[in-house]
Amino acid sequence: MHRAKHGSDSEVYTKIGEYDEERFNYIFKMYTEEPHTHMTLSEAMHMVHCNMDPFDPVRQVLDGSPQFLNI
Fold first, then answer.
1. N or C: which end of the chain has fewer CB within 10 A?
2. Residue range 3-28, pLDDT digits in tens
3. DSSP secondary structure letter of residue 41
4. If DSSP codes are grouped into helix, strand and coil, which group holds residue 19?
5. CA 56, CA 21: separation in Å to the nearest integer?
6. 64 by DSSP, 3-state: which?
7. Please, are residues 29 and 36 in contact by the beta-carbon 8 Å criterion?
């Protein structure tokens, strides 16, 4: 599992592949509006954008462009 992690990883799964529910809840509450029962598309896109690592070559290959063009 540790080889599957990348620079923009959210850390919801640990390096040994275990699900970290506390980390998930922390991220979910950080990027959603009260009452934190669902996530809208715009909130999800904001979360992805905020978690991007501009020096993550895996993300750049998957996106097909350098991160500074996506800002």
1. C
2. 555 566 678 888 888 899 999 999 99
3. H
4. strand
5. 25
6. coil
7. yes
The position carrying tokens 């919801």 is 12
Closest CA to 1 of 52, 13, 48: 13
| Residue 16 half-sphere exposure toward CB, CA atoms < 13 A | 1
H or E stretch covering 21: helix 21-31
How many residues does this entry show for the chain?
Answer: 71
Tokens of 18: 């275990």
Residue type, 71: I
The token duo for 24 is 């998930």
Orientation of helix 41-50 relative to helix 21-31, angle to 10°: 110
pLDDT in tens, 19-62: 999 999 999 999 999 998 999 999 988 888 887 777 766 666 66
The amino acid at 14 = T
Beta partners for residue 19, in sequence order: 13
